[in-house]
Every structure is written in C-alpha cells, then in structure tokens.
C-alpha cells in the first residue's frame, strides 16, 4: 500500500469524440485511487463535444484549445495546468480507453519504488468491442526495438497466456497509458511538439534515458483500448506521413554511433518495402504520404509545418 499518496493529474485529449471520451471518464469515476484531478483538453474541436462533456462531467477540469495542437501540444496544455494545480505526477491516458478501478495504484507504486524511474505503463488490452468480444487480446505488454530500429509492442494481437506478468524496463512507456514523474517533467521539459503526433513519448523517454532514468512496464495495471488497428495497406495518409517524417526526426535527435549507422542501413530498406506494399495494396494516397513525409523531413519541417499544406490540418 502507498502510505502518502501523491496527487495525480490525469490528462485526456478530446478531438471531436464525445462517445469515446465519455466512456473513458465514466470508467475513471469508478477509480479507487485518490487524490487526483482529471483534465480534459478539447483540442481544436469543431463539434459540440466540449460543451456536452463539460455539462456531463463538471468535476473534471476542461481546457479549451481553439487550435488542434496534436497529441504533444494538447497534452502539454494539460500537463502545465495540472502541475500548476499541485499534481505531483502526471498520467497521460488515451481518451479511447477505459480503465479498471485499481489500475492506477500499481503504476504509482512502481514509480515511487525508484527515484530513477521516469515513466511507467501498464498492460493494455484491446477493448472487447474491437476484437469480436475477446477481452484478453494484448495491445501493449512492453516494447522492443526491431531490426530496422523502429519499435514494436510485445504481445500485440496475442491472447494473454501469462507470458507478460513480469515488470521490466522498456525502451519507452506507451503514451496511451503513461505515468510520468512530475519532477522530471519540470526539469527535462514536456513532450516535444516537433512530432505533433507519434514518436513523442519515445522521444521523452529516450531523453530521460540520456539523463540516467529508466522506464517500466507494470503488468498489474490493466486498461482496455478501444482501438481498431488498420490492416497493412489500409493505414491513413496522415499516419503514414507522420510515421515516416517523425522516425527521421527521432533518429537525428537520439541515434548515435553504431545505432545511427544501423538506422541509415536498415530503415530505408523497411520504408522501401512498406512503400511497395502500400502500392500493391492500391493504398496510393498513403504511399504518396510516405514520400511527402520524407520530403518534408529533408525540408526541416517539424510540428505542424507541412500539415496544412498537405491537407492534413485545417
């Protein structure tokens, strides 16, 4: 048990998604952990979800951003507000999740067990409604670096057979469920807005590693992610654009020596194969978006630069 529980600020991003956000907030209302405060960042919404959610969940703190600041910028608004309100640590939580009542206690316990732990994620299942009713299919059970120096989740799309019950260090804590040390946020900085979406939590964790910290996977914490993975060849152009551009931004910032050489040897091979696959799948818009991502990286574009010009941001 935690003797003196620190106050936790929980950050959710709403982007025109009342249903998902409402389900998440209803699950959070059943939490057993205290003290905490929930912050909902309405991130450039153009529908009625901000007003509806404010009326239905008045005990949450609602933050309105007139512009879509992406995952990084939206969360940074919430992080700044929560820390200013006295939160000791920050939990990032995707709004298309719902939690088990005692999910937060194991994350806090793990974070407090070692002052050199920067962030902690738990076990994340696909929501049953995303997997034909199955409630034990894993979305995240830790992660590892693949041959092409990108990252991949352990256990993804596997039924949980008990293989992932050991807490361990990981290359990064998933931003879907990420308890971040408040003092490190203050000293190291928040999420980099160079990414807009994708790779930002890996970037933050890698910076923490460089400063002598580690990140953890804690399987006693369990949530469900109502995420329907796109099949290969069906990914959106925005996804392919940002994954391509941001991987190069990340590599330039963090890969050194042999790891940088490995990236430049193998990541282009991966991209060529992926581009070929998208073309064969007739996903021509996403294939073109990969080329845009590479081109815009070479132009030095980060954050929102290039998104409006490519038709991704209005």
Helix content: 25-40%
Average of the residue pLDDT scores: 95
Poorly predicted runs of 5 or more residues = none
Strand proportion? 15-25%
Structural class category: alpha/beta
Order of helices and strands: EHEHEHEEHEEEEEEHHEHHH
**Total DSSP helices:** 9
Total beta-strand segments:
12
Overall shape: it is: globular
**Biggest sheet architecture:** 10 strands, mixed
Radius of gyration: 19 Å
> What's the N-to-C terminus distance?
48 Å
State the main characteristics:
alpha/beta, 9 helices
Structure at a glance:
This protein is 38% helix and 21% strand. The protein has 314 residues and is of the alpha/beta class. Strands 1, 2, 3, 4, 5, 6, 7, 10, 11 and 12 form a 10-stranded mixed beta sheet that branches. A two-stranded antiparallel sheet has the order 8-9.
What topology emerges from the helices and strands here?
Blueprint: E1 8-14, H1 18-28, E2 36-43, H2 49-56, E3 61-65, H3 70-84, E4 89-93, E5 97-99, H4 104-112, E6 117-126, E7 138-140, E8 143-145, E9 151-153, E10 168-170, E11 177-181, H5 182-188, H6 200-210, E12 214-225, H7 237-254, H8 257-280, H9 284-298
Parallel strand pairs: 1-2, 1-4, 2-3, 6-12
Antiparallel strand pairs: 4-11, 5-12, 6-7, 6-11, 8-9, 10-12
Helix pairs in contact: 7-9, 8-9
């Amino acid at each position: 048990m935690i003797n003196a529980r620190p106050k936790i600020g929980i950050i959710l991003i709403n982007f025109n998604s009342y249903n998902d956000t409402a389900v998440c907030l209803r699950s959070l209302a059943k939490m057993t952990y205290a003290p905490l405060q929930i912050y909902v960042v309405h991130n450039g919404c153009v529908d009625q979800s901000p007003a509806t959610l404010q009326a239905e969940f008045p005990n949450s703190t609602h933050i309105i951003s007139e512009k879509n600041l992406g995952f990084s910028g939206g969360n940074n608004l919430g992080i700044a507000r929560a820390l200013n309100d006295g939160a000791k640590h920050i939990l990032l939580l995707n709004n298309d999740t719902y939690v088990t009542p005692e999910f937060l206690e194991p994350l806090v316990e793990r974070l407090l067990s070692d002052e050199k732990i920067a962030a902690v994620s738990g076990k994340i299942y696909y929501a049953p409604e995303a997997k034909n009713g199955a409630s034990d299919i894993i979305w995240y059970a830790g992660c590892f670096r693949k041959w092409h120096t990108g990252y991949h989740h352990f256990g993804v799309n596997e039924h949980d057979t008990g293989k992932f019950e050991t807490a361990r260090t990981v290359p990064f804590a998933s931003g879907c469920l990420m308890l971040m040390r408040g003092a490190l946020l203050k000293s190291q900085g928040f999420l980099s807005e160079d990414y807009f979406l994708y790779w930002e939590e890996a970037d933050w964790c890698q910076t923490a590693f460089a400063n002598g910290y580690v990140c953890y996977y804690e399987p006693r914490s369990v949530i469900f992610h109502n995420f329907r993975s796109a099949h290969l060849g069906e990914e959106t152009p925005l996804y392919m654009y940002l994954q391509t551009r941001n991987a190069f931004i990340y590599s330039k910032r963090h890969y050194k020596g042999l790891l940088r050489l490995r990236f430049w040897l193998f990541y282009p091979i991966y991209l060529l194969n992926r581009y070929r696959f998208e073309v064969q799948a007739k996903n021509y818009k996403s294939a073109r978006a990969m080329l845009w991502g590479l081109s815009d990286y070479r132009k030095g574009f980060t954050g929102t630069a290039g998104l409006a010009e490519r038709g991704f941001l209005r």
